[in-house]
Write a structure and sequence with these properties.
Order of helices and strands: EEEHEEHEHHHEHEHEEHEHEEHEH
CATH topology of the largest domain: Rossmann fold
Strand content: 25-35%
Shape: elongated
CATH architecture of the largest domain: 3-Layer(aba) Sandwich
Distance between the termini: 32 Å
CATH superfamily of the largest domain: P-loop containing nucleotide triphosphate hydrolases
CATH class of the largest domain: Alpha Beta
Number of domains: 2
Helix content: 25-40%
Length: 310
């Protein structure tokens, strides 16, 4: 339904997006993950026809939206990271304004407003000014505005950042309902891996402007099929010990945690004795040692060298 082909964007001499190829099928929910600066927002802007690519194309139902952006704009809903509402207007007035921009007929607009307000759980607050709303309520109205014209494709860019748990749960339920009951195609970015695991059929991981991995959860976890992940709790920090662990054969990655180290090593490697010896040499006690079951967060960290929230 929606596809990018070798999509690239260069700003002056910096390539923000580099030959990105991704697709979203009809009724599918797809995650787009990456650390800050990976190029996600630039990619979304090009898919939304807000930004013209330097090269490549975006296809909607096989037709180029670069040549004909009107085709996707009629059926696309976008929920941006920043709140895009008028603070001095009420929730209802905001939705009425956006409904007129979408050219929804006056006969249908009021019923659509009530429908989306019910969907985001804010019918009872519709006459109140946006400036009196909490951050979570504003984000819910932001989503309602994107749903007024019954979009076939919905792009959500960090829709739950910095909001209360109640609003977050409501947003996740709304997205799930749109995808499962209305077969709305979803492209979803988030800093919360658990949201992506809950909502998305497939995931693209992006770093330095490129797609570095893609697939469903099982396919992404298979990236770490040759590795094991260990958490080591230490009595104190030692730079010399960290450097020594990084040099151990079969140790692929070492990251510092709040109270120790997170180590990714080749399966069936025998680095523990070397670690124990190195800790004794530096006067560091190993308090706890545990192997963990790999998660999508581990895959992300392995591919980008950063946690999702970095």
């Amino acid at each position: 339904m929606l596809e990018t082909i070798n999509l690239s964007k260069t700003f002056k001499d910096k390539k923000a997006v580099d030959d990105v190829n991704l697709y979203v099928n009809k009724g599918e929910s797809v995650g787009l993950l990456g650390p800050n600066g990976a190029g996600k927002s630039t990619t979304i802007s090009m898919i939304s026809s807000l930004l013209k690519p330097t090269s490549g194309d975006v296809l909607f139902n096989g037709n180029s939206i670069i040549k004909n952006p009107a085709e996707i704009r009629r059926v696309l809903g976008v929920v941006p990271q920043e709140i895009a509402l008028y603070e001095e207007l009420s929730a209802h007035e905001n939705l009425n304004f956006f409904g007129e921009i979408y050219k929804i007929s006056k006969g249908d607009l009021e019923s659509r407003i009530q429908e989306v307000l019910e969907m985001v759980g804010l019918q009872h607050r519709q006459k109140e000014l946006i400036k009196t709303f909490s951050g979570g309520m504003k984000r819910r109205i932001n989503i309602a505005a994107a749903l007024l014209h019954q979009p076939k494709v919905l792009i959500l860019d960090e829709p739950t950042v910095g909001i209360d748990p109640q609003s977050r749960n409501h947003i996740l339920e709304t997205v799930r309902k749109l995808n499962e009951q209305y077969e709305t195609s979803i492209l979803y970015t988030s800093h919360y891996m658990e949201e992506v695991e809950q909502l998305c059929d497939r995931v693209y991981i992006m770093d330095h402007g490129s797609i570095v991995a893609s697939g469903n959860k099982s396919e992404l976890l298979s990236i770490l099929s040759n590795d094991d992940t260990f958490h080591v709790q230490l009595s104190k920090r030692s730079e010399k010990l960290i450097d020594a662990v990084r040099l151990i054969k079969d140790v692929r990655q070492v990251d510092e945690t709040e109270n120790g180290l997170r180590i990714i090593a080749k399966k069936r490697s025998h680095f523990l004795s070397t670690l124990v010896h190195g800790a004794e040499k530096e006067g560091v006690e190993i308090i706890h040692f545990q192997m963990e079951i790999p998660s999508l967060e581990d895959v992300f960290l392995h591919l980008t060298g950063k946690s999702l929230r970095d």
